[in-house]
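In the design runs reported in the main text, the only information available to the sequence generator was the tokenized backbone. The following block is the verbatim input for one such run; it is reproduced so that readers can re-run the procedure and compare outputs position by position.
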């Protein structure tokens, strides 16, 4: 039982990332009909927003402390972050420590602008083009964005720690009445899962209960009829593209302490997230979320030492095997609409 619970927990954080990225992919495909292979790059840019804010908050100036000396007896040079000078040592140190959560606010306008520019500047010219053309152009855009990040931030992963209060682990097993020190789990992974649940719930609530969201859902079902009612559905779909970019960016921001940001992390998640979308059902938002968590947990179980010893490499292909089975037995996916991917 403890092994099962541990693997479920291990699958939640990766499943949360899959679900968030797949949610954005499905929003774009469901509204605009575009297969966006640059969506993983948006996840990567979000992670580097956390890196960028951490570096900005750590900018410092050099002062001379006459009361302290180095090993040669010279007055010691002290690096003082600007935020500590502006807000005081304690407050400034706390701001630097909480740079990753603060990057949520920092990344929202950046990701929204990137999404708007991407959609207005490039994607809109490929709405009526074949999916193969959309894949080629967005995949090329993803490579360009990846190389830009590599140029400015380098090729090596950049550690981006969580706030100190979430840096450790807790005894999850003891909390639910099991033996102590059996299931030890990092705090930040639980935070990431809860954050993903809030974002997913917020997106669904926005689409379900706001007038804007209702119009968008109507446009996804019958774009032409909504347009005949005098509603500029194209502008609303552009906003949804920006929203999808923000969701992917926030997923990357909060994932930075779990997986140190690097320039190819977007590609690492992109292919898997498309598999998640296909398994869940193209255009199905609930299917994308369900498939994200299910496949994340399956991948976690497939990574167990006992499983890998029996089936070497199964952890690398389990998601694709599930996708093959789903596509052979139910081509529209778990929760896809009838007729989608079945013709």
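Verbatim output:
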């Amino acid at each position: 039982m403890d092994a099962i619970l541990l693997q479920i927990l291990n699958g939640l954080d990766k499943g949360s990332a899959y679900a968030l990225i797949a949610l954005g992919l499905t929003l774009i495909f469901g509204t605009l009909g575009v297969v966006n292979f640059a969506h993983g790059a948006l996840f990567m840019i979000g992670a580097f927003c956390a890196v960028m804010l951490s570096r900005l908050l750590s900018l410092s100036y050099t002062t001379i402390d006459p009361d302290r000396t180095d090993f040669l007896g010279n007055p010691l040079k002290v690096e003082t972050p600007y935020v500590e000078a502006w807000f005081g040592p304690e407050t400034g140190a706390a701001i630097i420590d909480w740079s990753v959560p603060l990057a949520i606010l920092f990344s929202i306008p950046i990701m929204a602008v990137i999404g708007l520019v991407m959609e207005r500047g490039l994607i809109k010219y490929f709405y009526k083009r074949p999916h193969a053309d959309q894949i080629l152009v967005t995949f090329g855009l993803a490579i360009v964005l990846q190389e830009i990040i590599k140029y400015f931030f380098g090729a090596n992963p950049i550690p981006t720690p969580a706030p100190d209060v979430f840096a450790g682990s807790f005894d999850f097993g003891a909390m639910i009445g099991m033996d102590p020190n059996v299931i030890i789990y990092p705090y930040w992974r639980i935070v990431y899962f809860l954050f993903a649940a809030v974002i997913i719930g917020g997106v669904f609530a926005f689409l379900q209960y706001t007038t804007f969201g209702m119009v968008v859902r109507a446009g996804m079902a019958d774009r032409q009829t909504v347009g005949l009612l005098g509603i500029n559905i194209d502008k609303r779909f552009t906003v949804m593209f920006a929203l999808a970019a923000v969701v992917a960016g926030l997923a990357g921001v909060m994932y930075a302490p779990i997986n140190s940001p690097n320039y190819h992390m977007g590609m690492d998640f992109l292919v898997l997230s498309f598999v998640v979308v296909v398994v869940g059902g193209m255009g199905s938002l609930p299917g994308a979320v369900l498939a994200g968590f299910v496949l994340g947990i399956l991948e976690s179980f497939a990574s167990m030492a006992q499983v890998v010893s029996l089936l070497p490499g199964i952890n690398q292909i389990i998601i694709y095997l599930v996708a093959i089975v789903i596509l052979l037995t139910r081509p529209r996916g778990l929760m896809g609409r009838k007729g989608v991917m079945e013709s």
